[in-house]
Amino acid sequence: MEAEERPSKLQKTEHEAGDSTVDFPMSRVVQDPSINDDKHKIDAKSEGCTQAAIDTAIGTTADQIQQPTLSKNQLKKLAKQRRWEDQRERRKEYRKEKLQKKRERSKALKAELQANGVALIPGVHVEGILPDKNKIRREARARAVNVPLTFIIDCNFDELMHDTELKSLSSQITRSYSDNAKAAYRASLVIASFHGKLKERFDTVLSKNHENWIGVKITQDDFATAAESSQRRMHEIRHPNLQGAFAEKSESKTLKEEGEVVYLTSDSPNTLMELKPYSTYIIGGIVDKNRHKGICYQRAMDKGMKTAKLPIGDYMQMASRFVLATNHVMEIMLKWLELKDWGKAFSQVMPKRKGGRLKSEVSTPGSSEAVHDTHPGGGKILGAESRAGADDADGDAREEVEGGLRMETEELTGNEREHG
């Protein structure tokens, strides 16, 4: 029984010796045409599904390539920025309510004082405590004297700065405008290469307040083109009575021809001993934690432009590392226009907590050079370009001033790029 159920082995077919190939007869198989049609439909359907799956996979992979994974710190910064943006309207309403309450309080107090027969003093708040700051500001601006001098802030460093550094630079530019607007002797201010992320920040976060600024030219032209325009404009405007630091000079063709264009940079071998009328001074508006050394000097050299550094080492004894922001350089030069004394200008602008002292006030004998801290790379820290880094973020918060009005408090992150 088992032998009958067991399949028999196929007999091995012997072939002729030397014949290595075997020819099998081919049988023709005829299939139903409907079977072929169904098969084609199934194949097409399968092909479509497969192609869709491939496209989806490619799209997912492309998204993964375009959207790199963010670090924990980056995610925190994004979340913080979103919260700030989400609360914009809320902050706006809070400021309106605060201002309305202040007006109502002043109005009520004014009515009470008048009812009691108290004479109100013009230019003084009804509280009788603080003078009217707006009135004082308007009067100061009315008394300000325009001098034939131009300061240019070169902002063509957009691609070299991080978002936090751009934020710091925008604060420095805003304060520079405010300092120049309320200075006793006011120079022309030009913001050059105003484009990219910096312009985007002014247009969005800062609500385009720069469009209301008075006496400032904002242009997308580079610093060289802006300097040519400023020189031509100063020569066209007459200044019959020069005042301030230029009071001893009188307008003349020779004086105009002596005007020069100077790029301020710490890498320059030249020292700026005085400001000259009908001249243009360029400040590098870059906040880069000292990553790009000598970039302002190199750009000036490429344009064949004169360079110089502020004479900080000739007047100041520095006890610790010190840096200056773009607005500090502006303020120092504005003070010089008023006082014609670098020592007094430095001492009035530089914060006392930084340990800077006038050499004339140092009792102990010292060298003729100021004590400079050095960068790990060996370069001097005191410079003429604006730098920022982590070691100046020690709680020194600054309030942004938009067109002379106090805006949201913005901490100037980092040790702003040094000037000297």
Structural write-up:
This is tRNA (guanine(9)-N1)-methyltransferase. InterPro entries: MT_TRM10-typ, MT_TRM10-typ_sf, tRNA_m1G_MeTrfase_euk. It comes from Arthroderma benhamiae (strain ATCC MYA-4681 / CBS 112371) (Trichophyton mentagrophytes). Keywords: Methyltransferase, S-adenosyl-L-methionine, Transferase. Its EC number is 2.1.1.221. This protein is of the alpha/beta class and 420 residues long. The protein folds into two domains: 35 residues, no CATH class; 267 residues, 3-Layer(aba) Sandwich (Alpha/beta knot), CATH 3.40.1280.30. Helix content is 41%, strand content 13%. The protein is built from 13 helices and ten strands. A six-stranded parallel beta sheet has the order 3-2-1-5-4-6, with helices on both faces. A two-stranded antiparallel sheet has the order 7-8. It has a two-stranded antiparallel sheet with strand order 9-10. The longest helix has 34 residues. The chain is globular, with a radius of gyration of 37 Å. 30% of the residues are buried. The C terminus is likely disordered.
